[in-house]
Amino acid sequence: MAEGNISLIMEFMLLGFSDLPNLQGFLFGLFLIIYTGILIGNGLIIVITKVEPVLQTPMYFFLRNFSFLEICYTSVILPRILVNLWTQKINISFTACAAQFCAFFVMAITENFLLTVMAYDRYVAICKPLNYPLIMNHRVCFQLVFGSWTIGIPVMIGQTYHVFSLPFCDSNKLNHVFCDIPPLLKLACSDTSVIEFSVYVVAVLFVMIPFLLIIRSYVKIISTILKLPSNTGKYKAFSTCSSHLIVVILFFGSATITYSRPKSNNSGRTDKILSLLYTIVTPMFNPMIYSLRNKDIIDALKKLLQAKW
Ligand SMILES: *[C@@H]1O[C@H](CO)[C@@H](O)[C@H](O)[C@H]1NC(C)=O
């Protein structure tokens, strides 16, 4: 019987927030505001780092690409949630689910590596200022960004193939807001230990390694800054990397909270909210952090607004 059912699953039900029927309108409004904010905030960063002459440096080149990534990353998740809340249709085809899964994790990996590249950029700027223009030339910047976007693709295509060729037989109800690994593995009716192990290996390689490289950059940055003779010098050097440091802490902090909770006390609803936090927090706060803390960006924003009115 179970065997016969395997091929029947052509689509999944993304239950999403359907356990909160009274809050559908509220959640729709909330996510619409958040998504619009993410598009506007990151869109503004893309525009000003493109047009403002003062901001034509590697640091802002990376920031622009990072903001672009944040828009793509949230666009894999949020529009679908909005449509589901609006239409109350919760089915997602097998292919769409696989595509969402693959795109989401490719971009999550990109995010880790772009943050690493940005930390490396700050490391070179602060610890090797004389060689900075030489090391961070156009070609290197482009290669670093391109590498960050592509490094996860082959691995995640493999993982997606692996997860979506699991037999799903009893149910097609994903108690989640998007096609994430844990709810999919929960539905599979065969042994998932091999795939859980491979997910673990991928996480170590593509999360831990970038994270350790970021720590390494910051250890060197901070020890260099502490050796600077004047307090103004210290403050100036630190202010160029503090925004990035805050974004790093937000991103890895929310990732740790989401994915390192013990399995036993995972209740569906908390899980859903946490995994959304993980996808929403960094894209939402990234533009705010940079525009509140960075004088060049504030000036460029003012200029842009004055030019418009
Ligand atoms: C970011 O980098 C990727 C890969 O090199 C590229 O496809 C994309 O257009 C870039 N985006 C921006 C806004 O620079």
From TrEMBL:
Its membrane topology: Multi-pass membrane protein
Keyword annotations for this protein, in alphabetical order, are:
Cell membrane, G-protein coupled receptor, Membrane, Olfaction, Receptor, Sensory transduction, Transducer, Transmembrane, Transmembrane helix
Enumerate the InterPro entries for this protein: GPCR_Rhodpsn, GPCR_Rhodpsn_7TM, Olfact_rcpt
- A GO term, aspect molecular function: olfactory receptor activity
Q: Where is the G-protein coupled receptors family 1 profile domain?
A: 41-290
Task: Return the CDD domains for the record.
Answer: 7tmA_OR10A-like
Write down a Pfam family by its short name: 7tm_4
- What top-level branch of life does the organism fall under? Eukaryota
**TM annotation in the entry:** 26-49, 61-86, 92-120, 140-157, 197-215, 235-253, 273-292
Write out the annotated subcellular location: Cell membrane
Check the UniProt entry and state the signal peptide residues, or none: none
Which Gene Ontology cellular component terms are annotated?
plasma membrane
**Major localization class:** membrane
Q: Which family is this protein grouped under? A: Belongs to the G-protein coupled receptor 1 family.
Against PANTHER family, the record matches this protein to: OLFACTORY RECEPTOR (PTHR26453)
What protein name is recorded for this chain?
Olfactory receptor
